[in-house]
Amino acid sequence: MDSLEWQFRRDMKRLVLPSILQMLIGNSFSLINTLMVGSMGDSAIAVMAAAGQINFILGMILSAIFGISAYITQFHGKNDTANVKKAFGLMLISSVAISLTAFILVSCFKAPILSLFIKDKDVAAYGVQYVSVIVFVYLINSVKDVYGNALGSIGKMKLMLVVGMIGMLVNVLLDYTLIYGKLGFPKLGIVGAGWATLASSILSAGILIGYVYGRKYYVNVTLREIFSFHWPFVKRVYATTLPLMFHEGMWSVGNMLYALAFGHIGVAALATYQLANTFNGYFMMGIYGFAYAAKVMVGQKLSQDDRNEAVLYARKFTRIALYSALAMSAGILILSPYIVHLFPNLSREVQSSFRHIMIIQAIVMVMFFLNNLWIVGLFRAGGDNLYTMNLVLVTTWLIALPLVFAGAYLFHWPVEWVYLMFSLEEVSKACIGFFRYRSNKWARNLVHNL
Asked: What is the pTM of this model?
């Protein structure tokens, strides 16, 4: 085994497992809430799906801001501590500003937003109570997630893993007590799930930030250093970040419109769509870990002007993603009949549709895996965000969305057929994105002369 292969395997093992475990914890938040709320029926799941779309849009826009972490990775790769702190400060201020704006807008327009997804007025009113609590999570996570992404971008995952585990355990306990009214607490239903999420987010943020500054850990940036960036630096960083923000924003709005289409079919269809998204997060967990490792490892090679080695790493990660996707597809096909039985209180219609959709997910899983590796891992490592913006505009807005809306509004197809149209976004994205991946035009040094 040559030294490069040994280095690749060493770094991949160091980065992938903690990242997968962190994704497992993060997805467990969603799954636990879904399992517990699912005991209250289709309507409760639909409320969570509708409210989740608001959080999803904000999360996607913030993930664009977190694209600044590509600069942190490359600055760290060349030991440029001063610019690491500038990039961190810019990312933190941008995140707080966007989240505060979302907090104000959602607080003022909760009912109209939810009514877009839920036509039943009683169910929508129930959702307003849930959103009134969950909206405060936006502000907490706007700070916590910046520290987490900054640490992750330099390969420091253990702290986030511990914090995530503590947060998940607290969330499970509070979900149980507040949703069902156990241990002397009132029975709050889905609103209790909102309070549980808020409390666990506050605790997680307190532990993470307290440790960073108490132990002088890597990103213990002072207030003066947070504001140390200058305008030329901002322009250079935002030149690659703004296309990513537009890309994530348009993609998340597209996903909101998908939910709108499924909601038009009915409450059962929206509940099915929510279940499919929840479990897809679990199915995709492994590739998120590899995409994260690829972003860090390839980004550091690019910052050191080792372009050939960066491309070689990209080829290795792509092979891993392909084999992993095939194994995951087989696993989904085998387990799908049993996964449905985790939700005995849901209607037979939802259970049947969910099983059929899992089969569709298994068929297109290779596309899901490759897209996440290439776009989130490789293209983002090289700041190739203008291309990804154009890619999402074509595949989401010109291909998949028109087909989904035609199926839901014009042809009145069943939810499975509409979901198949939804999946064509990933199929077309992989087919088009393959040529960009092979061209190596994404492999750029972002911090050269900065």
From this structure: 0.75
